[in-house]
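Recap from last week: sequence in, structure out.
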Amino acid sequence: MTEEKKGLTRKEFLKLAAVGAGVAAGSGLVAATEGLSAKGPVKWVMVIDLDRCIGCKACHVACKAEFDVRLGVFRSSVIDYEYGRYPDARRDFLPWLCNHCDNPPCVKVCPVEPVEAEFKGIKFTKKATYKRPDGPVLVDQQRCIGCGLCIMNCPYKVRFFDPAKKAGGNPAANPASKCDLCVHRLDAGLVPSCVNTCQGRARIVGNLNDLNSEVSKLMRGARVLLPEKGTKPQVYYIGEGAARINDALRKGIDIRIEANSEYQLKVWKNGPYAG
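Predicted structure tokens:
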């Protein structure tokens, strides 16, 4: 049966095909019962178990492949943090991505005129950077003007100019980009690409409003990065390394020096909107 005969658009057809493929593979699906016992609408969050992360960076590679992310920039990465002295030296791994904050400073500083939008019957206002009602903070690159204010005001330093695209609101500039929690996969019933490929199953995504979801059960003792910033992050960390990582961030360590390539330095340090 063709997609036209079923009355589906091509986009809807591909989404159904993706879900079918996930069922056939037997993995990578959001739990079918998730949300049935939820109070209120779905709220997507991520929990990362730092004790299970082995620093393999499969998530980083999967994200690059999913979105064709160019060299020198990343939507998601894993940072190595070493501390102590021999023979007591240790290394922590920190999966690093947009925190999809409930109080996102990037949205506040976006100068693009807000417009009315709707998602699954819920109305909200939408700038070029906006928070979708179900949790993810997104960038509409067709409306972005490439001003860089969101990049400079993100305390987690996870935004960048997309060198492969032009800003729809200002074709002379590159638009902002970052992790979007793979909303195209979530909307199709699949987990984000990084979650699907995690070798240690350190990343878990689910509905925080469902008390029976895995993420809700893991929230006890969970930490967020830089809570003093007041951004209300929705990426949570569990495990012994969480406290040590926060201490490192408070010391002003710039995680972006990890790749330290000439291209990256040019984009971040010498670009027209470098802060």
